[in-house]
Amino acid sequence: MSELAYEAAGRLARSGSASPGPDARLLVAHVLGLRPGELMLVDEVSDEARAAVDALVERRAAGEPLQHLTGEAYFRRETLAVGPGVFIPRPETEVMVGWALDRLAARPDGERRVVELCAGSGAITAALTGELGGLDAHAVEISPEAFGYLERNLAGRGVGLVLGDMGDAFGELDGTVDLVIANPPYVPAGHRNLLPSDVVDHDPGIALFSGADGLDALRVVAAVAARLLRPGGLVTAEHDESHAPAVRALFAEAGFLDVVTHDDLARRPRFVTARLP
Ligand SMILES: C[S@@+](CC[C@H](N)C(=O)[O-])C[C@H]1O[C@@H](n2cnc3c(N)ncnc32)[C@H](O)[C@@H]1O
After folding, report:
1. Closest Cα to residue 247, out of 234, 261, 257, 233?
2. Which intervals hold domain Release factor glutamine methyltransferase N-terminal (predicted)?
3. Which of 118, 149, 221 to mutate to test the pocket of ligand 1 (most atoms within 8 A of CB)?
4. What mean pLDDT comes out for the span 30-37?
């Protein structure tokens, strides 16, 4: 069995894959319905399973994201359903969620109303509701395809979901929200050619690109957060590492105080936090 994963890893390595070993183990485990750590317990593999692994390895070697092949993505403690049409959650966003959890945990039960803008698969809200009780959580997403995944991933968690534009969502919550969180699209429209092909070819454009300077959606996030938050409420939003000063400026212009840039796990400046006066 490990021989099958070994062969698959060799094929992925020859195709230039960045992580052939882990990818091969995940694909073989996916086909066999096991966790990667259980692969060593399997002696015999059917011809059908071998053929299914071969087909997935071929697709992975051609550049399809691993998460589209398995239909799953991992984010903090959550396993999310993903596929074509929805942004694959990234590990760099996990640090921003940690910041939000710390701030929400410091608030009493009944004062933990949180709104996620640009929710995609729902990874952020799934992690928030999965790791902290007493949340009154709401999330908005504009893409109908992504919204299908959002509904599926947050089913049964009591989250208020809206399919629509964040610009005019949740008017009924104006002035009452404790924390607004967003990982919006933030790539300048002209930078399409600078992105790796596995990103451009497989993440939806609406999840990536946002106007000429990449800041259009972040301007809306700042305006919507200023509308939704109660006095003293907090906002956090992810951004490109090259945009930290511009993002701080646009949150300050929207009326926020304590506007601070934070690093991701790779020590790149990747998310802003701010407080409404
Ligand atoms: C970078 S993805 C982030 C998804 C998810 N929050 C995550 O971190 O994995 C941005 C998401 O914002 C959505 N989006 C873009 N413009 C929007 C808008 N005006 N209103 C609501 N959602 C929007 C996209 O469809 C996409 O799902």
Report:
1. 261
2. 7-71
3. 118
4. 90
**Residue 181 Cβ contacting ligand 1 at under 6 Å:** no
Element (H, E) at 124: helix 123-131
Ligand 1 contact via 118 beta carbon (within 6 Å): yes
Q: For the stretch 190-219, what's the b/e string if a residue is b when 16 or more beta carbons lie within 10 angstroms of its beta carbon? A: eeeeeeeeeebebbbebbbbbeeebbbbbb
CA distances from 105 to 42, 78, 98, 177, 196 (A): 43, 19, 10, 15, 37
* Cα 97 to middle of ligand 1, angstroms: 16
Domains of the chain (ranges, CATH numbers): 2-63 (1.10.8), 85-275 (3.40.50.150)
Write out pLDDT tens, residues 44-86. 889 999 999 999 999 999 999 999 999 999 999 999 999 999 9
Cβ within 8 Å of residue 223, ≥6 positions away: 167, 254
184 lines ligand 1 (CB under 6 A): yes
